[in-house]
Amino acid sequence: MAIMEYIDAIRLAMKEEMERDEDVFVLGEDVGVKGGVFTTTKGLQQQFGEMRVLDTPLAESVIAGAAIGAAMYGMKPIAEMQYSDFMFPATNQIISEAAKIRYRSNNDWSCPLVIRAPIGGGIFGGLYHSQCPESVFFGTPGLKIVAPFTAYDAKGLLKAAVRDPDPVLYFENKKCYKLVTGDVPETDYVVPIGKANVLREGDDITVISYSLPLHFALEAAEELAQEGISAHILDLRTLQPLDKEGILEAARKTGKVLIIHEDNKFGGIGGEVSAILAEEMLYELDAPIMRLCGPDVPAMPINPPGEKFFMLNKEKVKEAMRHLALY
Amino acid sequence: MTQNGSTQQTLRHVELGLTDDQAIDMYVKMLTARRFDERNLLLQRAGKINFHVSGIGQEAAQVAAAFALDREQDYFLPYYRDYAFVLSVGMTVRELMLSVFAKAEDPNSGGRQMPGHFGSKRLRIVTGSSPVTTQVPHAVGIALAAKMKNKPFVSFVTFGEGSSNQGDFHEGCNFAGVHKLPVIFMCENNRYAISTPLHKSISGNVYERAIGYGFPGVRVDGNDVLEVYRVMKEARARAVAGEGPTLIEAMMYRVSPHSTSDNDLAYRTKEEVDEHRAKDGMIAYKQYLTEAGLWNDEKDAELEKTIRAVIDDATEYGDKAPFPPADDILRHVYAGDDREGGN
């Protein structure tokens, strides 16, 4: 077991998978010599060579599209989108192609592809280096979407994504890269795709979230425990397919649910989680389902007060949790 | 494409390394595709099928391209008018008809996709979609795999001239040029993107776009079967020699309306269509074979009869074949969600 940063765990997952299987390769803008703009792929080209850690032209649709072609041939590409804000030119390749290849060919062809993209703000990135685009891809059958919040999950989910026979969008949180450190086994383990994870047992309220805001929720839960409020916290881990059973079980634990994500509220993943709860267990709930999300503006601004207003933090989360607990 | 001079002169197909049987087989494939296409138009007009998108007038270049490739190992990413191409790389008329009737046994998609959306892993025909040109980056990715795995195959991708305006065309060409990948891009320039004529679609020339991406672009008369074959052979040789991609612009004309849902006389004249119909590459090639002493009216009549029987059989087979069960639509979203086997 080693203590490492979230970003190191992502890199380690790629390194281990590339050592394990020579068909695994990385492609993207600046991933090679530079090792990525965040250093996520640092050192990989030195170890695996130019072909397996491929610097591509600045053109996201062909990064995704070429990866899809290679995946259909039988390779296991990991395509990096430099920022998730820049993956929209590849949306047609992801939604019309990758997601539908198995289905449209009646299981003749498949597309075992991973697309990694950094999401989230709080880094003074302004509108176009801060977005959470999950909701754009969420709801596209044929895609899997994962979003780790710890270093442990970062490694295990990426390894699972590489080994998955279908296309997986791996949304890594750029604010977590250096901020989050944790124990990461040096052994070969995977975090299964499609299973939510209970992070904390509690009796009064259930918090359902993913990615960075989970850190705020865990800290807030510690403090609220002092006030006698006991929070049950569920990490969705996989956004698609959602772990419906895990969600219902967590909600039943307390009968009060708060859903938290940085992506804006309207049309976000919280709406779907909420609908599952309403359909399956409305009369078991003791309070309205609540959501704490980014505001419904196009994206967060670069000015510090504006960014702070947009971003979630421990105080906002704690306030929302207390509000639900006291309901 | 007339053969002149004495019988001593070497025939063009022989010069190109094609045997007489191969030369004849090319014509067989063209005529099969043409008659298949015509049958589909009839079936649609008769209300037996909902939709047909035609490739009439484009068969010559398609067949030539297929014969120039290695049909044992190359990867193919055809676009929706490429019936003659897929027939030339091993798809059968029955298989195409199963797709036309959207039946369970259709190898392209199990009756899920519109006809003309080809796919067969067995034949290395890579599954395609309807948003045009998305297949170009896929071809590039497959060529990248060839380079990474040091395999001697090439990928071959076709698209219309309208498609050559899509970003995916440009992004794909550039990527392939940078990495010198073994891919052949063939634009089937049939002069129309539905109703939009060439001059409203492109101000320069498609083949010259290759210059900007650092590899050769070649324009060829798509009605000249043997010339397309020659150009394709060269492109394939370049690709396997590690010299990178080639862009081929095959000039042709879309004789049929865009699809059975299109009234083409709203935007072009019958005279224009007739003028191009007269330049049919298949007719010219038949003339060539005849003058080469490889073909005659008797053989032609026999072939027509054979093809008619094959298409009749395929039509009946496709028509009578069962649809997939309705709830089959729930299968194959992800691996392992098929309840009864799958492939």
UniProtKB/TrEMBL annotation, chain A:
Q: Which GO terms describe its molecular function?
A: branched-chain 2-oxo acid dehydrogenase activity
* Domain Transketolase-like pyrimidine-binding: residue ranges: 4-179
Keywords of the record, alphabetical order, are: Oxidoreductase, Thiamine pyrophosphate
Q: SUPFAM superfamilies attached here?
A: Thiamin diphosphate-binding fold (THDP-binding) (SSF52518), TK C-terminal domain-like (SSF52922)
- Name any cofactors this protein relies on: thiamine diphosphate
Q: Which InterPro entries match?
A: THDP-binding (IPR029061), Transketo_C/PFOR_II (IPR009014), Transketolase-like_Pyr-bd (IPR005475), Transketolase_C (IPR033248)
* One Pfam family here: Transket_pyr
PANTHER family with a match to the protein in the record: PYRUVATE DEHYDROGENASE E1 COMPONENT BETA SUBUNIT (PTHR43257), PYRUVATE DEHYDROGENASE E1 COMPONENT SUBUNIT BETA (PTHR43257:SF2)
Name by which UniProt lists this protein: 2-oxoisovalerate dehydrogenase E1 component beta subunit
Organism in which the protein naturally occurs:
Paenibacillus phyllosphaerae
From TrEMBL, chain B:
Q: Which residues form a coiled coil?
A: none
| Highest taxon listed in the record's lineage | Bacteria
Q: Which keywords describe this protein according to UniProt?
A: Oxidoreductase, Thiamine pyrophosphate
A single Gene Ontology biological process assigned to it is: branched-chain amino acid catabolic process
Q: Which residues form the Dehydrogenase E1 component domain?
A: 30-325
Q: What is its EC number?
A: 1.2.4.4
What catalytic activity does the UniProt entry give for this protein? Answer: N(6)-[(R)-lipoyl]-L-lysyl-[protein] + 3-methyl-2-oxobutanoate + H(+) = N(6)-[(R)-S(8)-2-methylpropanoyldihydrolipoyl]-L-lysyl-[protein] + CO2
What Pfam families does its record include? E1_dh
* PANTHER family from the UniProt entry: 2-OXOISOVALERATE DEHYDROGENASE SUBUNIT ALPHA, MITOCHONDRIAL (PTHR43380)
- Family from the record: Belongs to the BCKDHA family.
Q: What is this protein called?
A: 2-oxoisovalerate dehydrogenase subunit alpha
List the source organism. Answer: Paenibacillus phyllosphaerae
